[in-house]
Specification:
single chain, alpha/beta, seven-stranded mixed sheet, four-stranded parallel sheet, 44% helix, disordered N terminus
């Protein structure tokens, strides 16, 4: 096939980034109100977080995705022509593909196929640190892979195996063996996760009996939740060992961390840092992380952290709020923390408070004392009496 020509060129002409896979991004612009350009940029960031380099983009305007191929046949011909002229290691689609689309595209393009959901799952798999997070990610990953195994077989093989599978060779017999292996592993994971969830429920019930108000950090990925938590810990605990991972990347935090924060004068809270949300977050991941995200659902107050310097701030807020509703946390009182306000031109002096909104900079620490006062006003003895009602003016 002509799509294989890039392999010979790449072997003959190695580049400086030969160690990074070259990903061709494919997208379909639909008339559904989505910010398509922003979605494609986010897809590129997800690919980068998986260690890939963007090799190019090919997009198409359609009323609805092609049922069998996602993109039109003519456009896929353009994709094949592009792959003949440019080195491409993997093709990445902007939305989730159905099992039949995955199989058909694999046959046509003769190249490993990934979609947006697969990228997110791979990032989660590489970032999970605790036993619970690893179990949850593997469970979600296997649920997604199982019906798509034929089309994804080469994409998994490119890593030398995925989710505990040994992908050597192909064929119907091999696929059937993998299916059985996945099904057995999924059953094991369900049993293990049930045990872990019971342990978490015991831990949560112990905290609840302590009477300390619970505050959860929620928000879009890379909005600055972990940075905000660390600035709170810097100010009130001064114990470096309590700090969490703080990095400018998508999904830097997957494991929920709970810290006791003493803000002086007998004011104590339990502050939890939770996994960030993203547009088109795979349903399987939301379900898999449901027990971890119970910290948000059981909280007395949510700190909804937003990146005020991002043009997509409003859309990201909507994504987070929709996900919280799915989790049953849509009615919990909220303080909206507009972070990175120091990067916004014309913002003026910080912090700035408007109702239940505060504009601050977690990076510089501007606004941390004022945010602490807002938190205690909501969850302290006087504020807790009115916690049954969501704040106004968000």
């Amino acid at each position: 096939m002509k799509a294989r020509a890039w392999k010979e060129r790449r072997a003959a002409e190695p580049t400086e980034d030969a160690g990074r896979e070259r990903a061709l991004l494919l997208g379909v612009r639909l008339n559904d109100g989505e910010d398509f350009a922003r979605s494609m940029d986010e897809l590129s960031a997800l690919a980068g977080a998986c260690g890939m380099e963007e090799a190019g983009r090919i997009t198409q305007q359609m009323d609805r995705p092609h049922a069998a191929l996602y993109m039109g046949r003519g456009k896929l011909g353009e994709v094949q022509d592009y792959m003949e002229e440019h080195p491409v290691d993997v093709v990445v689609f902007d939305r989730s593909l159905t099992p039949s689309q995955m199989r058909n595209l694999q046959n046509i393009l003769d190249c490993p196929i990934l979609d947006r959901t697969t990228l997110i799952l791979e990032i989660f798999a590489s970032r999970a640190r605790t036993r619970e997070a690893k179990l949850q990610v593997e469970s979600a990953r296997l649920q997604y892979v199982l019906p798509r195994l034929t089309g994804m077989h080469r994409a998994l093989s490119r890593q030398g195996g995925g989710s505990g599978l040994a992908n050597k060779g192909a064929g119907e017999k091999k696929l059937e063996l993998d299916r059985r292996r996945i099904e057995r592993r999924m059953a094991e994971l369900r049993r293990e996760l049930d045990r872990v969830e019971k342990e978490r429920e015991v831990q949560r019930s112990r905290r609840q009996t302590g009477g300390v108000p619970r505050v959860a950090l929620v928000g879009y990925t890379n909005a600055g939740k972990s940075t905000l938590m660390n600035r709170m810990l810097d100010k009130y605990t001064r114990d470096p060992s309590k700090k969490v991972l703080e990095k400018d990347m998508l999904f830097a935090t997957l494991d929920t961390t709970v810290r006791r924060v003493s803000m002086g004068a007998g004011r104590e809270i339990l502050l939890s840092d939770t996994v960030g949300f993203i547009h088109q977050l795979p349903t399987g991941l939301v379900k898999a992380f449901r027990s971890t995200l119970e910290e948000a659902r059981e909280a007395d107050l949510l700190l909804h952290v937003l990146d005020w310097s991002d043009e997509a701030c409003r859309a990201q807020r909507e994504v987070t709020e929709e996900t919280l509703k799915e989790l049953g946390a849509g009615d919990i009182p909220v303080i909206y923390v507009y972070n990175k306000a120091d990067r916004k031109e014309g913002e003026g002096a910080l912090p700035r408070i408007q109702g239940n909104r505060i504009y601050l900079s977690a990076r510089t620490g501007e606004g941390i004392p004022e945010l602490s006062e807002m938190i205690w006003a909501a969850v302290g003895p006087k504020g807790r009496a009115g916690l049954g009602t969501v704040f106004e003016g968000g």
